[in-house]
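Side project, low priority. Logging it here so it doesn't get lost.
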Amino acid sequence: MRRFLSTATQRYLLPAAILATVLLMLQGSSDMDVGSTGALGTLWASVTVPEEKPAENKPEPEPERRPCCALGISYLSGPGKVVLEQVCNRGNQTVFYLRTEGLPATCTHPPGTILTDQNGHRYAMVGFDGMPSCQSGSFTSSANTRFTWSFQKLQSGVSSITLMEVEDPVTAGLTFWAWRNVSVQHCQL
């Protein structure tokens, strides 16, 4: 025998069924019961929530290690200074974080920026950021600027570095920065 529901009951049963289905999806239940009783169409919906399983104690994967090492070495330059703040390994690059203090109108010259280690191995500059290239004819507008120099990754076992700029025809007459024999042995890069 088939039972027909009143129009009022049908109006409320569909939203209850949808609600129960949504709850089912949210709870991940495999047991659901939806129905109505009585002449006024009292609705009911029940969802059986499965018992939660205890979480497995899997070790979380370690984030990619990107060691950085504070240096904090200042180089006096004209009315201000340039600070070699830190060095970091970023993938296949070694990145130096620097800042100027009280030095308006500065620029960087990648072809004249050299990084060498205690064994005389020279690392090519692969990028810079935060300061315009001297070749562009532009200079910083702030006397206090943060910038980076990126080089090929330092070889393991490096204990000291020399980071310096050298003069060439493009930069003739400008001030150059140099950090010689900087110990990075404590950095474990």
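Brief comment: Residues 68-187 form a domain with the Immunoglobulin-like fold (CATH 2.60.40).
Revisit when time allows.
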